[in-house]
Amino acid sequence: MSGETAHLPVLSVASELYPLIKTGGLADVAGALPAAMAGHGVEMVSLVPGYPAVLGALAESRALATLDLLGDPATLIAGHAHGLDLLVLDAPHLYDRPGSPYADGEGRDWPDNARRFAALALAAARIAEGVIPQFRPRLIHAHDWQAALAPAYLHYRGIAVPSLLTVHNLAFQGRFPADQRHGLELPEAAMTIHGVEYYGDLGFLKAGLRFASHITTVSPSYAEEIASEAGGMGLGGLLAGRAAAGELTGILNGIDTAIWDPAQDPLLPRPFSAHQREGRAAARRALLADAGFDPADAGPVFGVVSRLTWQKGLDLLLELLPDLLARGGRLVLLGSGEPGLEQGFRAAAEARPDRVSVRIGYDEARAHLLQAGADVLLVPSRFEPCGLTQMCALRYGAVPLVARTGGLADTVIDANPAALAAEVATGLQFAPVERPAFAAALARAFALFADRPAWDRIQANAMRADVSWTRSAAAYAALYRRLAGTPG
Questions:
Q1: Where does the chain bind ADP-alpha-D-glucose (predicted)?
Q2: Is residue 296 classed exposed, middle or buried when 0-12, 13-18 and 19+ CB atoms within 10 A define those classes?
Q3: Which of the chain's ends, N or C, has fewer CB atoms near its CB within 10 Å?
Q4: Can you name the residues that pair with 59 across neighbouring β-strands?
Q5: pLDDT tens column, 172-195
Q6: What values do phi and psi take at 303, rounded to 5?
């Protein structure tokens, strides 16, 4: 794989990987982790499905092994792209399709998703088994339900390689009818409560939570939340048991601070930093012009970069939008999701184009400009495993206003009186995620924005916050070595 053998070979298994293929934060984390781990003596190779975009990006690729995978042929191809060491599962019958990694162009899940991602997990187990002599991982790191059968395959095939499962979002569990087990090379004995069975169905994530050597989530607070009946989404008992055994750890994500760096971001009109913030005014002017707003209006600009879903609490923002506008605020939104929310925000923009700008979809350049030019970034999520957008906001000086949950609570220091007096506040938090609490937090944002010295201190604190992978990579490296039995 790489020219020099690293101290600890690890296979990362993910259904998406930035910048090759992305639908959400999973891709960002899976794409950033290999570089973050390299400084800790970890050789991380990423196994990813052979989507057309992935195969098209490969450089110096070569076929390493041909597998009979769930009764059909597949090829493992080694290659490099964007600094990533890759193993690509080339199986055109599973992955050579239009649409997203999980759904067709109309948003309908592919009917064979169980088979598509079981194949990915089984390929990981075969690699651990030694199908590629050039690369023998000492640990399998599986991400989310799409890779979560890998620990189960290791168990049922008797492969003595430890596994780590990272839960990026417990809400997505990979649940399929029980009869889809047939053809997935899982034994009949697996369909029990102690195996892959989940309320009578086949549960990919449940299987991973049961058989992984260790489980991580993407923030400490989220690890506590999901190990409970209230936050466990049907898996709280299993997770509570793993937590009690010391087998569940919350490790906060970081962001790629090379990509998200306002001091050298080619997508911004002028560079700026925590120490030299003057260039941020140019980004704010550019955002106002792009949104079609009056540049002379001094009111705060609120930004949203998000999926438009109930989870993200954006129905509450839609309800409170008239009050936000009446107070002199403006809104710039970038995202897509539930049709009702898309329609609601579109209607708001049509009614008040001078104060509301909405773009449905995702655009990388606009996301960077929005983070750099907005005064406040709104993340009112009802639950949030980690969240990356508020970390980008911190780095770019868009003061985050967030719900007090999961990784949002772990990354933003609320501007309460004590934090303001100590000059450590980096944003605003609110709880519970209900209309009155959110409205009160918006009122606090307006009041602080009007107090320019206080606002400048919060913004400067935010931009100095450490949102890199430095501490988290060290925590992962220590966990990897403990699981693999390799001295650190």
A1: 22
A2: exposed
A3: C
A4: 80
A5: 999 999 999 999 999 999 999 999
A6: -120, 155
